[in-house]
Amino acid sequence: MADRKPVRVWVDGCFDMAHFGHANFLRQAKKLGDVLVVGIHSDAEVAKHKGPPVMKEEDRYKMVRSIKWVDEVIEGVPYVTELDTLDKYNCDFCAHGDDITLDSEGRDTYRIVKEQGRYKECKRTAGVSTTDLVGRMLLMTKSHHLVGARNSPIPDGKTNNEASCSNLKSPYTGISQFLPTTNKIIQFAEGKEPNPGDKIVYTAGAFDLFHVGHVDFLEKVSQLGNYVIVGLHTDEEVNRYWGGNYPIMNLHERTLSVLACRYVNEVVIGAPYIVNNSLLDHFGVDVVVHGMTPIKPSANGSNPYETPKNKGIFKIVDSCSDMSTSKIVDRIIENRRNYQERNEKKEKKEIKLIEIMAQRKKIKRPTVKSACNINETQTV
Fold first, then answer.
1. Can the peptide bond before residue 6 be classed as cis, meaning omega within 30 degrees of 0?
2. How far apart are CA 291 and CA 276, in angstroms?
3. How confident is the model at residue 156 (pLDDT cuts 50, 70, 90)?
4. Which residues, other chains included, contact 193 with Cβ-Cβ below 8 Å and sequence gap of 6+?
5. DSSP letters of 347-375?
6. pLDDT in tens, 232-289
7. CB atoms closer than 10 angstroms to residue 212
8. What does the alpha-carbon distance between residue 323 and residue 312 come to, in Å, rounded to a whole number?
9. Are 233 and 208 in contact (CB under 8 A)?
């Protein structure tokens, strides 16, 4: 009996500020087949159809390559998915989330593959989006640290509209609430114990707005051993040493972001800030690593790495990346109006299309699978 031909799944997108929602979609898409091929749009394509991306294309390419469910990355693919693209990369079908993606003319970017029956959907991860993260950075408050606190009072006279970059009601661009579950963590976790003799490497931090600088760092950390454990500090601890409204992402969100990285084997959720003998012995740590960021003293003023330093197992690793969480925040704030206008325009197109589809359904026409043009007049 001949070997079964591997099923190759195609997905594409901007993957701007790639987050755990993107990773969850890629995880689901990978389960639809054997090989996951991810096409990523260039900066020029994104700007033409959607507006300026937050992250440059080189960073977006590297971020997606770091997600552990991704097998191949194709750079600079067209914004509208064509059959020729699927055939060129030997993909059986295209997968996308159950949201709407429109081109510059207001048409569904997946209309062609849908019409030809080469399209499958995955469930969108509610409660997280690039728009949401941008909103958190524009709204300098700590309410996002609290699960279910999105509707809490907004300080400093700012409004929820300012936070979300929109005052419209599209279910795809507007903010919804992310609810963490143990099942989601299990789905992301590798569930693999270290093998006897493995060299175990431990590093800890905030890993907030998980970005390409973190990826570069963790890739280098992974080269120091066979099994990488990342300790994630609590929201309260991160806020103690970074101040402001940090962390932008709460502990549950940061956990999923780090677990999705192919260079990470395990995550300690709410790791102690001080790396003591108890932690080192519990996980059998051989090497403790810190990046080039300044080491903040613990709450009692002590050096959190005093014990591994005394044991001679502490190392400093230079990621050679100039990206940081604060740089992303600064970029967003400096370009605030541009991102607000981009998201408002995107949401208006989505709402108009939803209204057209609802009207067609009401008059008992077949549902148009996002293939209509939102610029058409709503006549029947």
1. no
2. 18
3. very low
4. none
5. HHHHHHHHHHHHHHHHTTPPPP-S-S-TT
6. 999 999 999 999 889 999 999 999 999 999 999 999 999 999 999 999 999 999 999 9
7. 22
8. 29
9. no
**Rounded-to-integer distance, Cα 339 and Cα 333, Å:** 9
Q: How far apart are CA 250 and CA 331, in angstroms?
A: 21
Cβ–Cβ under 8 Å, residues 351 and 174: no
CA 362 from centroid of its chain's CA atoms: 36
Q: How far is CA 219 from CA 144, 191, 215, 269, in A?
A: 29, 20, 6, 20
pTM of structure: 0.80
Distance, first Cα to last Cα, the chain: 54
The per-residue pLDDT for 342 is 66
Exposure string (b/e) for 228-237, b if CB count within 10 Å is 16 or more? bbbbbbbbeb
Cα 111 from Cα 107, distance rounded (Å): 8
Contact 271, 288 (CB under 8 A): no
Which two tokens mark 35?
């090989």
